[in-house]
Specification:
Length: about 190
């Protein structure tokens, strides 16, 4: 399979201090890692595409490591994560499915012993398309305070023959979360759900 041809990358950190209520003692930090890459399957149908997942693995690891560095280098502060991909218009949705394993397993490897599945979203879109990437707690998907989404995208990508891959991480619950449910302090850590 071809090597991954990266046109551009972006690591971005957002800090949220409040959502109209009282100021948080510590801001919620949300980091996004994006890469715009060439889609080797654009414009044609290819039956066997799964080997490209192995080619994507180093990119996932690099993005995840750089995201942790952007948060100060301490992986233990990451409490939420998610992944997503926008496939350019000359590709197909199935090309986006190739990011599931390399993106998810990369974050799980870099963050250590996480239990929860990494939620994801994908779509086919044009230049400037945006994608809402879902976020859940890294160890228990039912922790309601960490249900979130982060909008990702770049104004000049993906081009028709490209894909925009995304990883997201957060350092905690939504600011002012008060919708009840399982608390992070109540996680049993047995199944990635509770």
């Amino acid at each position: 399979m071809p090597q991954v041809d990266i046109r551009k990358r972006l690591i971005s950190v957002e800090e949220i201090f409040h959502e109209g209520g009282p100021r948080a003692n510590k801001p919620l930090r949300r980091v996004v890692g994006l890469a715009v890459i060439k889609n080797p399957f654009a414009g044609r149908y290819v039956e066997e595409i799964t080997p490209f997942m192995e080619d994507l693995r180093p990119l996932g690891l690099d993005l995840a490591r750089d995201m942790v560095k952007a948060l100060g280098g301490d992986r233990s502060i990451v409490e939420g994560y998610g992944k997503g991909i926008i496939v350019g218009a000359a590709g197909e949705l199935e090309h986006g499915a190739l990011w599931h394993a390399p993106g998810g397993y990369a974050m799980r490897e870099v963050l250590g012993d996480t239990k929860a599945i990494v939620p994801s979203s994908k779509k086919v879109g044009g230049l400037g398309a945006r994608l809402d990437v879902p976020v859940t707690h890294v160890n228990a998907s039912y922790v309601r305070s960490h249900f979130d989404s982060i909008e990702v995208g770049l104004p000049d990508g993906p081009r028709a023959d490209e894909m925009l891959v995304a990883l997201v991480m957060t350092t905690g619950a939504r600011i002012h979360n008060r919708a009840g449910g399982l608390k992070a302090s109540e996680i049993k850590g047995e199944d990635g759900l509770r």
